[in-house]
Amino acid sequence: MPFLDASAEVVALPPSKLRLVLLTAAAVALVVVAVRAPGGPAHSVAVPVAMAQAASIDRGTAAVDASAAKMKAKASSTPPLVTAKGIRAAQRYARSRAGTVAFAVLDGQGRLRGLNRTVQFPSASVVKAMLMVSVLRSIGKGHLDGGTAKTLTAMITVSDNDAASAVYRKVGASGLYRVAQAANMRYFRDVGWWASARLTAADQARFFYRIDKLVPATHRRFARKLLSSIVGYQRWGIPPVAVRHDLKVFFKGGWRTAITHQVALLEKGDRRIALAVFTSGEPSQGYGEQTIAGIAARVLR
Fold this sequence. Notes:
This protein is an alpha+beta fold. It has 10 helices and 10 strands. Strands 5-4-10-9-8 form a 5-stranded antiparallel β-sheet, with helices on both faces. Strands 1-2-3 form a 3-stranded antiparallel β-sheet. A two-stranded antiparallel sheet has the order 6-7. β4 and β5 form a beta hairpin. α2 runs antiparallel to α10 and α3 (about 130-140) crosses α5. The longest helix has 28 residues, at about 50-75. It is globular, with a radius of gyration of 32 Å. The protein starts with 20 loop residues before the first strand and ends with a helix.
């Protein structure tokens, strides 16, 4: 490898410091380093460009590593929406309540936790969210007409049973089964009438967590608006707890004699969880609502 003549003139560096002066010599692909020791003569040394590039890459890698470390520290400082401690507290509370209580929580890491998650319950009005999704999927990218929009709005926001019956006659059991399959439900069963379909807490948590993707993008905003616009007198259970935690809530409840259910998608920034609570055999609807709120308060603590 050729080197510069040692007799060539080199600019002297201040004797009080050591410096490396890098000069790109494109013709020979070298970097010239001029070094002068204190009180001594200056010397010119040729260094391959690759070495200088490697040093630059090392500095760049260090910067990237530092940036990644900062991002990781920021992520770790963001508290999770659900903790194992909260789940255990909710389990203890659920076991203390009268009747049969089941709940399931699905988080962003795909962890599905709860109690009695695969016990089947009659659906009551919770299944109306599935009916809505079935209709919107059948429309696809097409136009949502005013009459259908009105029917879906009544069915979801005020839980109108006549609207649900009209939709069920249109989509039928096959429409519900298609939604169940798309949502990866494992225990759904239609028994010939929407209000008596068999649901589990685990399956409904799966469904609500994926509900955005299950609805065609064209109608996603409409569906989210309905599920976040439930009338005030039906906003018991999970929603008041979610609001206290600054969470967005998209939900549907269901109730009839000795049955009180509620399922919700909860969001905060880019984090989300789904929570489903099912009860049966409770003394009253009010008691069931308290059970759901108590579980939500412990899960979200």
